[in-house]
Amino acid sequence: xxxxxxxxxxxxxxxxxxxxxxxxxxxxxxxxxxxxxxxxxxxxxxxxxxxxxxxxxxxxxxxxxxxxxxxxxxxxxxxxxxxxxxxxxxxxxxxx
Length: 96
What we know:
The protein contains four helices and no strands. The chain is mainly alpha-helical. The chain has one domain. Mean pLDDT is 85; it is low at 90-96.
């Protein structure tokens, strides 16, 4: 499911996010999972919520990167990259 292509729906995005949380829980990394779950709480449907979510994800990555497996880092980076792409599409649409 994860490749360099854009995700096709927010439902898929959140499924991948939840899979990352499950992986972190399975690897007994509750501190990382907790911070990422807290980041999701920033999402409120408004642009500022998505921005806060992105900042919180990036902060968690920076804080815990040394504790994360390559797979966990890959998934987190995928989520951040696709969030960046979606925000770019919104900006371009807004300027039309």
